[in-house]
Amino acid sequence: MALEAPDLSVDASSVGALVTGADYRGLGLVRSLGRKGIPVCVLKNGDQRLAAFSRFVRRTFEWPSGSDEERAEFLVRLAEAEGLHRWVLLPTDDEAVAVVARFHARLARVFQLTTPPWEQLREVVDKRRLHCFAAGLGIDQPWAYLPCSADDLTTLDCPFPAIIKPASRERVNPLTTAKAWRVDNRRSLLTRYAEARAFLPAEALLIQEMIPGAGEAQFSYSALCRDGRPIAWTTAHRVRQYPMDFGRASTYVETIDEPALVEPSVRLLRTLGFTGLIEIEFTRDPRDGRFKVLDINPRVWGWQSLCAGAGVDFPYLLWRLVHCKPVPELRGRAGVRWIRMSTDLATAAREIATGRLSPFRYLRSLAGPIESAIFAYDDPLPGLFELPLLAILAGTRMLRGQKV
């Protein structure tokens, strides 16, 4: 995807960014751009309001629920009403990315977009397509099967334990929220598959072997790309995650020097011809030591605020790319660490209780300089409000009967 050139009649210095999410991912975007003097507005979405407390936010708006078309039309009306013409639109989650992708042409007449249209995006976000795509390129990945119906599973030679995964996470339901459901035998496979079919069609599900290991086996290659060529990139070890096994979010991450992550990632990106921010997730299989591709996130990822400290300030570099300004080729340096303490404590406690992490190892991981995901001396309010907001969020989910 080639990003459209900005309207040169608009002074780029007066054009801001609209961030479609106020969680900690949105907060990282807000701080990166706000510290450069770029105006930033935020759409608060549901229970996520953390970024709205940042001193770098000029205005906050409520993004109402509704269909993709209704949300796209809301964005257009908001731009017209609030003078956001040609502002950079930065989606922070899969739902927002899907809205922008499906109504790309309509939104591109109003905003400067940073994610591709649906025809290109689905090659990246659909895990069934990714599985076939990676297989064609000879890139290592876990064993997987793409069932057409429950009948396909009755005699399937499936390695257990396995997981049932949604092909994409653009719609919220119990399976996409959990990311995956573990199955330990054929009976649980058939039972859980039937439950999954209540939320998603057969073509939106896949069965995958469960690679041993949890957070300590999770790695990433992250980059800013232009037409499939990485301009700035880094590799990282996502050491701990929350929840512990099928993490919705990383809680402790360290940048590393790992060449084995680079070559398959570059090959994937070159073939996709992708432009924008992207994270490619891998797991390291302890049985053979090989890195195997799991997922691709064509948007900002949770721990991206770590990257500025490693020398690759991805949101600002993307801003420069959108405005046709020079972007130097950069590689993130290894050894920079990041933690979201509010969720990492819970993860560490569970890992210590199960014997997967010793108290000494945990305390040692906290020694020395470490980047906080939320607290910042030049922007303290989000850090002060995080715990009360998390308590409200947990209470709301409990009342709804949802997992915390």
Supply the key terms.
disordered N terminus, 8-stranded mixed beta sheet, 17 strands, globular, alpha/beta, D-amino Acid Aminotransferase, Chain A, domain 1, 3 domains, 5-stranded parallel beta sheet, 14 helices, Rossmann fold, Dna Ligase, domain 1, 35% helix, 404 residues
Short description:
The chain is an alpha/beta fold and 404 residues long.
Global geometry: globular
Rg, Cα atoms, Å: 21 Å
Count of individual helical segments: 14
Based on the structure given, which CATH architecture of the largest domain is correct?
A: 2-Layer Sandwich
Q: Could you tell me the strand content as a percent range? A: 15-25%
The CATH class of the largest domain, by name, is Alpha Beta
Oligomerization: single chain
Overall number of strands: 17
Percent helix, as a range, is: 25-40%
Number of domains: 3
What structural class results from the helix and strand content? alpha/beta
Please report the distance between the alpha carbons of the first and last residues. 37 Å
Largest sheet: 8 strands, mixed
**Mean pLDDT across residues:** 90
Low-confidence stretches: 1-12
- What would you give as the CATH superfamily of the largest domain? ATP-grasp fold, B domain
CATH overall fold name of the largest domain: D-amino Acid Aminotransferase, Chain A, domain 1
